[in-house]
Amino acid sequence: MTNLTPSNTPVLTQDELKTLVGQAALQYVVPGEIVGVGTGSTVNKFIDALASMKDQIKGAVSSSVASTERLKALGIPVFDSNEVAELSVYIDGADEIDGQGNMVKGGGAALTREKIVAAQSKVFVCIADESKLVETLGQFPLPVEVIPMAAKRVMQQFAAMGGKAHIRLKEGQPLVTDNGQIIVDVLGLKITDPLAFESQVSQWPGVVTVGVFAHQKAKVCLLGTATGVKTLTF
Ligand code: 5RP
C-alpha cells in the first residue's frame, strides 16, 4: 500500500521500490543475448519485468533453482552456465552494498551460484532499495556457504576475528543449499577491506563461498529511493 507524506507526496513501500528497480534494470538487457539472472525478492521483480521482452532475448543463465523455476514458468529459456562463454550483464540484488560497489550477498542462500554467474559477466548491475546502502559492510549477518564437515572450524575462525557465527536453520534443521552444502551466518563483523577479507576467508578449508562480493563487485547500482531510481556507478 502506498502511504502519503504530510505534503501528499506518495511514499513508496519497499515492495514498490523493488518493482521500480526491477523494471529499471531492463535497460541493461542486451537484445539478442543471454542475460545473467540473480536470486531474491528484488530479482523476482526483474524476472517478471523481463517476461515483457522475452522474445527479444535468447534466454538467461540462472543463479538458483528458484530463479530457474520462475524464469521457465514465464517462458524464458534457461541455459547452463557451461554452455555460455561470457555474459554481457548480470542482474542481481544484494543484502548490503557500499559506496564502492562491494556487496554482501547470500541472504537467499544462493551466493555460490551468484558468484559464478557474476564472474562470467562483464557488468554486474545491482538492484536494491535504499535500505541496502551502507557505509561499511557487516551489519547484515554475513552468509558463508561451507561443507558441513568444516562448519565448527570455520565458526571458530570467525570467533577469533570477533564474529559470532551460527548455522542457518530451516524448519529446525540446517538449511541445505542448491549445492548440497550448509550456510553459516556471521554477526558482528566490520568489513573495512572487503577485497582482502574475501581473499582471506575464501582460502579457509571447507569454505565454498564467502558472501562478500568485492572481486565480483557491482559496476552499477540501481537504487530505489523515495524520489525514484538513483543510478550509482563504481
Ligand atoms: C540471495 C541474495 C539476494 O540478492 C539478497 O539476499 C537480496 O535479496 P532480496 O532482493 O530478497 O532483498 O544474495 O542469495
Could you describe the 3D structure shown?
The chain is an alpha/beta fold and 234 residues long. It has 2 domains: 3-134 and 215-233, Rossmann fold (3-Layer(aba) Sandwich); 142-211, ACT domain (Alpha-Beta Plaits). 25% of the residues lie in helices and 30% in strands. The chain has 6 helices and 18 strands. The protein has helices at residues 14-24, 41-50, 65-73, 111-119, 151-160, 194-202, and strands at residues 3-4, 10-11, 34-37, 59-62, 78-79, 87-92, 96-97, 103-104, 121-129, 142-146, 164-167, 169-170, 173-174, 182-187, 207-210, 212-213, 220-225, 228-233. The strands form 5 sheets. The chain has a 7-stranded mixed sheet with strand order 5-4-3-6-9-17-18, with helices on both faces. Strands 11-14-10-15 form a 4-stranded antiparallel sheet. Helix 2 (41-50) links the parallel strand 3 and strand 4. The longest helix is centred in the N-terminal third of the chain and has 11 residues, at 14-24. The chain is globular, with a radius of gyration of 18 Å. The two termini are 33 Å apart. The mean pLDDT is 96. Ribulose-5-phosphate (5RP) binds at residues 38-42, 92-95, 105-111, 114.
